[in-house]
Design brief:
The structure holds 2 protein chains of 2 kinds. By secondary structure, chain A is α/β, with parallel strands linked by helices. Chain A contains 8 helices and 7 strands. Chain A has a single domain, classed as Aconitase, domain 4 (Alpha-Beta Barrel). Helices cover about 30% and strands about 15% of the residues of chain A. Chain A has a 7-stranded mixed sheet. In chain A, α4 links the parallel β3 and β4. The two termini of chain A are about 35 Å apart. The longest helix of chain B is centred in the N-terminal third of the chain and has 17 residues. In chain B, α6 runs parallel beside α8 and α13 packs across α15. By secondary structure, chain B is α/β, with parallel strands linked by helices. The chains are: A alpha/beta, B alpha/beta. At the A-B interface, α4, α7 and α8 of A face α2, α3, α5, α10 and α11 of B.
Chain lengths: ~200, ~475
């Protein structure tokens, strides 16, 4: 997995609450058997019209946001299904960090498995960052995962919380499965004990 | 010993390893797999030279993509991408030796319907699947939730998940439900009250007399939509009804093991003085038959209400409601029961079980659907379908003008050819009314099977109590 350490980039404002996974990546794109290539279909139904022309008013179609690496969004971002195609599409587009007042659990968890940092912040701070993002390509927002800080283009600094284990994995690009396999002995022990106490499982 | 909730008890029984910072490896008893969220996981295993650790605890079935038309028996899936996904699951199941129900098997169906049906789902288990509606299995007092594809791969390889414990939330439905009010109305009403993020970070336990009174099918409907309320998992403590449902199922324990299992299952309840981080109480008598009007499952109102005005909300919901109303083509003040519909979809992991089909058929018996209406019933499994045929329900649906389909997820998420056209308005028994969910530009109103059947007859959203 790609490491995440520091990021300085353009932030795209998507001022909507309850952005669901069907919006992020509609179901017709879940038929792939690969993880890559979904960026072109990120927010597909908001981004293209029926004839596959870009809808110019949609944020990611505006020239100043085409290279956005950060997304600023409303409450409960990523609600809906467990499809990991949502973070795959976000990452494939080039976005590595999503800022919102809150996230749906499964989506939040899926982000960390794909080198994306989701950051939950109080609404007032999101309001400031949303305004900052609306300034377009001249306003770069800086994220420092090590220091757990976000710096706006005006130099205002916010701190954020992140689970220490998730931070460690993201900063070092660690593979969860490899880490868990180091604890194989504990799993073996549990499995043998459970086979005795709950043999019907 | 300190008092525990049901969730605490199941959690504690499955921690295989706990790190100093509280990060746990949670052992997984059952891993359910379907064709859409698993190919990349199997591919990841292959690339890393890893094996499926516990194939005997892993159960796979194709459901999301499969056609539900009768002619699918020919075995050909026309959509090439869908066919490739189903073939990938066929191959992955064969190569890894996991349990598998192919499209041709009468036991095939929606993964969350066949798990309980085959007795894979048992009280006290941990159950995961790369699908957010895994919460359904919580109806048996199992800790069940959706996971992403990376976690599917993690469970395949290690039979564990890296987890931190969630918080405990109690949702109590007191008293009794009025006639015409169902499990679907309970679960939608809870979401209407708490919002789609109200359960985020929590595991919900549903309790109270109105929940106890529900059948296992009804309890599955309630837990199914825990995720629409933001909670990964919903639970209901097992009781006599649970044991009666489980007993004798193909993969349920038998003989001495059944006795041993039952002894443990009977300890699976929340202690009286257990700690709850959040409590929501609703009187069963206050719940009416409901429908959704917008594009979020929290947009719930009794069928007797009218379309709300966007500016009746506060904060970000004002813009969201405005966007919803525009998408849904609705004007504030319109009585909900005057909204005309084009299509009726009865099915899904929320409402595709035998009891759901019985409830819909009870309304449809001797009636015809409105002229020009497109209506389909998609049973949740091949066995539900067979039972409905045996009970004469299929004849009622067909005589009323419904299409009688084969089992699958179908128009709930429209990955197969069952889709809405732009602007087409659907009364659906499924779980999500998101923009484009049932097809680009399609408009979804969520409701119970009886309400959907009533709408099919009248051609507009209808208070089912008027037809009872």
């Amino acid at each position: 997995m790609e490491k995440f350490d520091k990021l300085s980039g353009i932030a795209a404002p998507l001022d909507l609450i309850n952005v669901d996974t069907d919006m992020i990546i509609p179901k017709q794109f879940l038929k792939t058997i690969k993880r890559s290539g979904l960026g072109v279909n990120l927010f597909d139904e908001m981004r293209y019209d029926d004839d596959r022309n870009e809808i110019p008013t949609f944020v990611l179609n505006k020239p100043q946001y085409r290279d956005a690496q950060i997304l600023v969004a409303g409450d409960n971002f990523g609600c809906g299904s467990s499809r990991e195609h949502a973070p795959w599409a976000i990452k494939d587009f080039g976005i590595s960090c999503v800022l919102a007042p809150s996230f749906a659990d499964i989506f939040y968890n899926n982000c960390f498995k794909n080198g994306i940092l989701p950051i939950a912040l109080p609404q007032e701070q999101i309001d400031v960052l949303m305004k900052d993002a609306e300034k377009g390509a001249n306003a770069r927002i800086e994220i420092d995962l090590g220091a757990q800080t976000i710096t706006t283009s005006d130099g205002e600094v916010f701190t954020f919380d992140v689970d220490a284990f998730k931070k460690h994995c993201l900063m070092n690009g660690l593979d969860d499965i490899g880490l868990t396999m180091e604890k194989a002995a504990a799993i073996d022990t549990f499995e043998s004990a459970a086979a005795q106490s709950r043999p019907w499982v | 010993m300190s008092p525990k909730t049901l969730y605490d008890k199941i959690w504690d029984a499955h921690v295989a390893h706990e790190a100093d910072d509280g990060t746990c490896l949670l052992y997984i008893d059952r891993h359910l797999v379907h064709e859409v969220t698993s190919p990349q996981a199997f591919e990841g295993l292959r690339m890393a030279g890893r094996k499926v650790r516990a194939p005997e605890k892993t159960i796979a079935v194709p459901d999301h993509n499969v056609p539900t038309t009768i002619d699918r028996a020919s075995g050909v899936i026309e959509n090439e991408e869908s066919r490739i996904q189903v073939e990938a699951l066929d191959r992955n199941a064969r190569e890894t030796g996991i349990h598998y129900y192919p499209v041709s098997d009468v036991r095939q169906g929606i993964v969350h319907i066949i798990g309980p049906e085959q007795g894979w789902t048992l009280p006290g288990m941990t159950i995961v699947c790369g699908d957010s509606h895994t919460a359904t299995h919580g109806a048996f007092g199992a800790l069940a939730h959706g996971i992403g594809t990376s976690e599917v791969e993690h469970v395949l390889a290690t039979q564990t998940l890296i987890q931190r414990k969630g918080k405990n939330m109690k949702v109590e439905i007191t008293g009794k439900l009025a006639p015409g009010v169902t499990a679907k109305d309970i679960t939608l009403s809870v979401i209407g009250k708490t919002g789609t993020a109200g359960g985020t970070g929590y595991v919900i336990e549903y309790c109270g007399s109105a929940i106890r009174d529900l059948s296992m099918e009804g309890r599955m409907t309630v837990c199914n939509m825990a995720i629409e309320g933001g909670a990964r998992a919903g639970l209901i403590a097992p009781d006599e009804k649970t044991l009666e449902y489980v007993m004798g199922r193909p993969h349920a324990p038998k003989g001495a093991q059944w006795e041993a299992a039952m002894a443990w299952w009977k300890t699976l309840y929340s202690d009286d003085d257990a700690h709850w981080d959040k409590v929501v109480t609703i009187a069963g008598e206050d719940i009416a038959p409901v429908v959704t009007w917008g594009t979020s499952p929290e947009d719930v109102l009794p069928i007797t209400a009218s379309v709300p005005a966007a500016d009746s909300f506060v904060g970000g919901k004002v813009d969201a409601a405005r966007r919803s109303l525009e998408y849904m083509g609705l004007t504030a003040g319109t009585p909900l029961n005057q909204i005309k519909i084009d299509t009726v979809f009865i099915g899904s992991c929320t409402n595709g079980r035998i009891e759901d089909l019985r409830a819909a058929a009870a309304i449809l018996k001797g009636k015809k659907i409105k002229d020009g209406m497109r209506a389909m019933v998609v049973p949740g499994s091949g066995l539900v379908r067979a039972q409905a045929e045996e009970e004469g329900l299929a004849d009622i649906f067909i005589e009323a003008g419904f299409e009688w389909r084969m089992a699958g997820c179908s128009m709930c998420l429209a990955m197969n050819p069952d889709q809405l056209s732009p602007g087409e308005r659907c009364a659906a028994t499924s779980n999500r009314n998101f923009e484009g969910r049932q097809g680009r530009g399609g408009r979804t109103h969520l409701m119970s099977p009886a309400m959907a059947a009533a709408a099919a007859v009248t051609g507009h959203l209808t208070d089912v109590r008027d037809l009872m």
